[in-house]
Amino acid sequence: xxxxxxxxTHFTAMSASASPLWRVLSTGRRVPAVPARHGPLVVAPFxxxxxxxxxxxxxPAQILRNVRPKLLIDGxxxxxxxxxxxxxxxxxxxxxxxxxxxxxxxDVDRAVGAARRAFDSGPWRKMSGRQRGRVLSRxxxxxxxRAEEFARIETLDNGKPLALSRGFDIPFVVSHFxxxxxWADKISGKTLQTNSNxxxxxxxxxxxxxxxxxxxxxxxxxxxxxxxxxxxCGCTVVLxxxxxxxxxxxxxxxxxxxxxxxxxxxNILPGYGPTAGAALVAHPxxxxxxxxGSTEVGREIMRGAADGVKHVSLELGGKSAAIVCPGVDLESxxxxxxxxxxxxxxxxCAAGSRTFVHESLYDExxxxxxxxxxRATVGDPFGDVQLGPLVDSAQLEKVLxxxxxxxxxxxxxxxxxxxxxxxxxxxLNGSLIGVATQGAVVRCGGSRIGSKGYYVEPxxxxxxxxxxxxxxxxxxxxxxxxxxxxxxEEVLDRANASPYGLGAGxxxxxxxxxxxxxxxxxxxxxxxxxYNQFDDAAPFGGYKMSGFGRDMSEYALQNFxxxxxxxxxxxxxxxx
Length: 576
Ligand code: NAI
Ligand code: MG
Description:
Elements: H1 5-17, H2 20-27, H3 60-63, E1 71-73, E2 76-78, E3 85-89, E4 96-101, H4 105-121, H5 129-145, H6 147-158, H7 162-183, E5 191-192, E6 198-206, E7 209-213, H8 219-233, E8 236-241, H9 247-259, E9 266-270, H10 273-282, E10 288-292, H11 295-306, E11 311-315, E12 321-324, H12 330-342, E13 354-358, H13 362-375, H14 393-406, E14 414-419, E15 422-426, E16 432-436, E17 441-444, E18 459-462, H15 469-472, E19 479-485, H16 488-496, E20 500-501, E21 503-507, H17 511-520, E22 525-528, E23 543-544, E24 547-548, E25 561-569
1,4-dihydronicotinamide adenine dinucleotide (NAI) is lined by residues 213-217, 240, 242-243, 272-274, 277-278, 281, 292-294, 297, 300-301, 315-317, 349, 395, 398, 474, 476.
């Protein structure tokens, strides 16, 4: 290749480290001490080596022993005003592992009242940024000390492999609180060059009471993406956790109090969306709503926030393109495109769920992608596996529905075209196994595994066409759809034809092509020769129906600050 050495080194480094996490998952055992620099998926090693429990050893009551299944309001863990609770399930077994207090409008009112008082007259907003930063640093330290406990809670609650909770979710939360602890005393405005005899400057002030409504796919990390910048800015927070996964945030609430976050500054409401969530969005005491979840609920939230003209930022669904260009090293790219989709059982907003492969590589890529997906181990997430169960029965039904819709029958087959979108699928021995009404071929997977727990097979569709529902809609499951492309203009048009615009990946050895595609895509993040490389310092969020506003990085501060201009006459405008 004719690249300058620096570029070549960069590409080599990126591809060598592009899926450190998955390497851990596929080789099993524990998370190694990977330096953060080129392995952001493994953000920081745990201080002490920990033994993996075998799946049989898992005792939910023991794992949850320190979690108080209540609401956190004004520094106290309390029952819901109604006295109601709701069940939380273990996605491995469908057993109830906890009954948690269920917040509704009355509790929202209490929590927002506490957050309002804490903002208007409490110490948090008025203390120096340096002091707030120290509290947030202490909170990060406390979490790090108990990282293993949190990782197990996350895996029990969500079903994600323990190696992922240990190697990605929890270390990222630690790192994110440290990162924003560092920002807390660096949130400043500007001195302005005015056109009059005035002195003018801006202040970036805390926006007020911030409501955070988060999903279940990365429970503690989603909390961190909202709470860390909000608290750094001096806001007070009311967090509505997802009904499927409330446990880790509740324990984190205890740590926040222990770290010195004053009562009322960080409140937590487990409960359902249409009740607790909607009441929180509409509450007049809330100044800002930060949401991650489905596009459909994002719209509801904009409507709900409209009456109070509240600040809103939304990180919504996606249908991200993973674009494989000619001439790449298939071995590593197949692996990275696999990770891009299958990480977290495909339950990731940025999942690379449209795999666009250049025609020169298509057949070989499909073969290898199928072989890779068939090798992926699925099972108890406390064991040595790459995929655990999906989060709940609703998600299971949704994913199975897409698998059925994508093709009529699962199984290896070859095609006989009978109409434009209708194929007969034959087994390799010649017997008819079904009709693929939309024309994609299930190369592997396509079914639920067992009848207890929300496990599904890693699934690969080839011959996918853009108009099929599996190519257009967010599945949020382990379903890879592989499409063929011929020209760069065409693949850019097709990638951009989605109403979503969250992320994308491009694999190429051609730097000019990488630049052209990166600029051509209407998405919030482009990963070049890698995927899912998240970093505290890099903004994350969407174009189009993937939302607006950015989580993570310096840009996230804008979500939680107002800009105030202060103008005063200058008697002696020395610089004019
Ligand atoms: P959802 O958007 O309904 O839930 C996310 C959060 O919003 C939860 O805390 C929920 O209680 C809350 N919520 C629901 N309705 C609300 C309302 N009317 N007002 C205020 N808050 C409300 O997502 P759900 O039902 O869990 O998953 C459905 C689909 O959404 C998934 O299959 C996936 O396609 C997508 N999704 C996208 C995520 C992302 O990271 N962008 C995360 C989770 C789901
Ligand atoms: Mg929903």
